Amino acid sequence: xxxxxxxxxxxxxxxxxxxxxxxxxxxxxxxxxxxxxxxxxxxxxxxxxxxxxxxxxxxxxxxxxxxxxxxxxxxxxxxxxxxxxxxxxxxxxxxxxxxxxxxxxxxxxxxxxxxxxxxxxxxxxxxxxxxxxxxxxxxxxxxxxxxxxxxxxxxxxxxxxxxxxxxxxxxxxxxxxxxxxxxxxxxxxxxxxxxxxxxxxxxxxxxxxxxxxxxxxxxxxxxxxxxxxxxxxxxxxxxxxxxxxxxxxxxxxxxxxxxxxxxxxxxxxxxxxxxxxxxxxxxxxxxxxxxxxxxxxxxxxxxxxxxxxxxxxxxxxxxxxxxxxxxxxxxxxxxxxxxxxxxxxxxxxxxxxxxxxxxxxxxxxxxxxxxxxxxxxxxxxxxxxxxxxxxxxxxxxxxxxxxxxxxxxxxxxxxxxxxxxxxxxxxxxxxxxxxxxxxxxxxxxxxxxxxxxxxxxxxxxxx
Length: 463
Fold this sequence. Notes:
Blueprint: H1 3-20, H2 27-31, E1 43-47, H3 52-59, E2 64-69, H4 73-77, H5 92-100, E3 102-104, H6 107-113, E4 119-122, H7 126-138, E5 142-145, H8 153-166, E6 170-172, H9 180-190, E7 197-204, H10 230-234, H11 260-277, E8 284-289, E9 306-312, E10 320-325, E11 347-353, E12 357-361, E13 368-370, H12 372-378, H13 393-402, H14 411-430, E14 434-435
Parallel strand pairs: 1-2, 1-4, 2-3, 4-5, 5-6, 7-10
Antiparallel strand pairs: 7-11, 8-9, 8-14, 9-10, 11-12, 12-13
């Protein structure tokens, strides 16, 4: 651009601002590409715009939605109607924003062709999270990634490294991390409400009734929907032909694409115990399960039920034991739990302390303490953990981009949490006790299990 044109453009914009009685300076003048003045909205794009992605984007409808990518626009359309087919009133604004935005079936084209994207929401199946988020971050985009952050431990390490190197604002979609009730769990644990804690039990009823697991891979050939981009859906995974057993949503039960119930709900259930106790990485993991689905012992789909045991080193010399249960399995009842108190079969956690127990539900909700006399004493424990001011986990991320609020669940926290979850699925796949060398990301006692920490990427889809 010539100096004459540049000076004239600056003059016209400055004169208009003065005439309007305001002093807003364009973002490109203040700080170059990607700079956001506090008064700006954020240019947001979505990769995976239906299902959970539409829920994320609905929470961001106050922002400027400039583009979205999805492999199946028919599936996206279903996000705007109820079960009876009538329009959902709470999605009308989002639909209007989607109708205005550029749309793509290949997210790579979207990132290449829409230059003014500031931030990207990633709500694809798990196996595509890492490549989309890593690519976006390297382009200077802020990223919000649905849980679990990644499909593999190695990918979690990669995303954490890229986030550190690029300095973009990151958030994982474990929305309970921003909730007041979940943060009350931390107040209580750190305030000594139930004394020292060395035992934790966490459970979910999934996948029971949510999606199929423990089934063999389909063998028949089915044509994908006419406009679906199946190649992009497969992404970095080994190519297989389309089948409705994989898409939509049922993908979570397949080892190549999802990480089962532990990956689905661990971020909402393990989160607060892991956070409050500052557990970091386990030293030992082992698991047991019902059979995998497959042919000739191939691990095609996750088992219907798992129990996973984690052991963490404690600075005081005593270990912390955490046990995960899914598929409808429940832990044994602690001695301090009154007989007339029922556990929430949908999911929850029990932290067992020396003087009492703390129970919370999914997302850290509804924390309560037993026995009664310990609960009465705990009421005086003050709030010490800052509460999130934004109206949603997604808007907390936006506020952090704008510099008005601290981000709730950045990759510096979310990546190690995800690694813990995926070490559990790794132990189930390995079928043996795993001693974990976190510094070197390996199992020194079972090197054959190291292969489960990463994957072989399809050509052209490497990180």
